[in-house]
Amino acid sequence: MSALWSVGAGLLLLLLWVRHRGLEAVLVHHRWVFVCFFLLPLSILFDIYYQLRAWAVWRLHSAPRQHAQRVRHIQEQVREWKKEGSKRYMCTGRPGWLTVSLRVGKYKKTHKNIMINLMDVLEVDSERQVVRVEPLVSMGQLTAYLNPMGWTIPVVPELDDLTVGGLIMGTGIESSSHIYGLFQHTCVAYELVLADGSLVRCSPTENSDLFYAVPWSCGTLGFLVAAEIKMIPAKKYVKIHYEPVRGLQKICEKFTEESKKKENSFVEGLMYSLDEAVIMTGVLTDEAEQSKINKIGNYYKPWFFKHVEKYLKADRTGVEYIPSRHYYHRHTRSIFWELQDIIPFGNNPVFRYLFGWMVPPKISLLKLTQGEAIRKLYEQHHVVQDMLVPMKSLEKSIQTFHVDLNVYPIWLCPFILPNNPGMVHPKGNETELYVDIGAYGEPKSKQFEARASMRQMEKFVRSVHGFQMLYADCYMTREEFWDMFDGSLYHKLREQMNCKDAFPEVYDKICKAARH
């Protein structure tokens, strides 16, 4: 009873302090208070609800039976929109704050919202080595479902809450992408409800133009209702080799060299300054040295990027065996390194042991509760950007990131980009090795100004025939946007399928210049 009184007294004092300081002041200057006491417990409740729901669906095997009915409901909504005169564009009815993107689309308030409640795994076809899923299935949900069966997918983008639909309509990448390409390149078929309410399946051999146009289209060609994704056999561990490298030229040479080796199941780099990095290579295995097993995903373990930094500080190489699922979601607990700006003491051993089991807070809840003051603060003094550039331009690109942003750590992730039709492909006629350069945090560059600096970055990326991930803030004009992306197939299909009255153009949906 005395413990309850203590907790109650503590909460009362906290509420009095919040009232004294003002809620907005606390949210801006002491955000960790709100996150630790409210968002973390709420995030746990969210997780429990979705896990129980997934378990119930699995036990009842209801997903395949209900899928057709749910798709028919989507078709009915689209046909109803047509009967009403097609007066407004359509979009999914999923609230903007639920997406992992930092952007909350204003278009949700003006467009016709089509409710899409599709969040289940539909079928695992071991013979074809394909899993069929609905678009709102998350990466955490999918790996938890497949791994006990001995399967995984070739590209498992980092964060648990990333959905299949978002990774197809936008894009997704992982440290295995130097072998398999982007997430879209591991998909073998899509099913969509089109602007006329019809249901269509597309693949490389069936409605192939649509199949290649869907990725990066951000839901502006139709509503994704199912996807088929390749599977590969899962193994118990990833054997990781850590190697600190110093000097920008040596970093780029080593990273490029390892990215070209197909015997590496995984390749990743973390840069802690302009001339300091740790290059990691991994191999899937079922055997492990017991003394070197590191269950990095356990709640009390150090955040992964901090763990990696120890090898740099000690200036030594190392080898560990990380359980596969822990490896796939190694950056989840710290949201890469973004959580250190929200909970500065989050990697402290005391916090990890007492409260680490509640981390991370849901990104969707962080967005929902950020308020206008925090939104503006983040927009002007914070960057979350992924730029995809040819590997041959890596050194020049890192120097540009350093001058314009000066944000560290920087994430390096290689990927192979095939010369397929669609919005994103190499400049030449052959497959090319690219790299994702991820910058997440507060820029230390003295001349940083959000709009001007990002426009300069975008100009550089266009000049090397690179691409900007569309979840992030984009400041390009329409002409600049279509200079970066190949819109030929996309625009042809929008004309053929009567999408112009049904969906906004992708530029109008994602670019800041289109919204202001």
From TrEMBL:
> What GO MF terms are annotated?
Delta24(24-1) sterol reductase activity; Delta24-sterol reductase activity; FAD binding
Query: What UniProt keywords are attached to this protein's entry?
Result: Cholesterol metabolism, Endoplasmic reticulum, FAD, Flavoprotein, Golgi apparatus, Lipid biosynthesis, Lipid metabolism, Membrane, NADP, Oxidoreductase, Signal, Steroid metabolism, Sterol metabolism, Transmembrane, Transmembrane helix
The principal location of this protein is: endoplasmic reticulum
Q: Which InterPro entries match?
A: Diminuto-like, FAD-bd_PCMH, FAD-bd_PCMH-like_sf, FAD-bd_PCMH_sub2, Oxid_FAD_bind_N
Key word Nucleus present: no
Gene Ontology biological process: cholesterol metabolic process
Quote the subcellular location field of this record: Endoplasmic reticulum membrane; Golgi apparatus membrane
Q: Which cofactor does it need?
A: FAD
- Name the Enzyme Commission number(s) assigned to this protein: 1.3.1.72
Q: Which domain of life is it from?
A: Eukaryota
Reactions catalysed: 5alpha-cholest-8-en-3beta-ol + NADP(+) = zymosterol + NADPH + H(+); lanosterol + NADPH + H(+) = 24,25-dihydrolanosterol + NADP(+)
Its membrane topology: Single-pass membrane protein
**What are the transmembrane regions?**
32-50
Residues forming the FAD-binding PCMH-type domain are 60-234
Which PROSITE patterns does the record match to this protein?
FAD_PCMH
Q: In which pathway does it act?
A: Steroid biosynthesis; cholesterol biosynthesis
Question: What GO cellular component term, any one, is given?
Answer: endoplasmic reticulum membrane
**Is Protein transport among this UniProt entry's keywords?**
no
Family the UniProt entry places it in: Belongs to the FAD-binding oxidoreductase/transferase type 4 family.
Task of the protein: Catalyzes the reduction of the delta-24 double bond of sterol intermediates during cholesterol biosynthesis. In addition to its cholesterol-synthesizing activity, can protect cells from oxidative stress by reducing caspase 3 activity during apoptosis induced by oxidative stress. Also protects against amyloid-beta peptide-induced apoptosis.
Q: What is the protein name stated in its UniProt record?
A: Delta(24)-sterol reductase
Q: Which organism is it from?
A: Horornis vulcanius
The organism's taxonomy opens as: Eukaryota, Metazoa, Chordata, Craniata, Vertebrata
Which gene does this sequence derive from?
Dhcr24
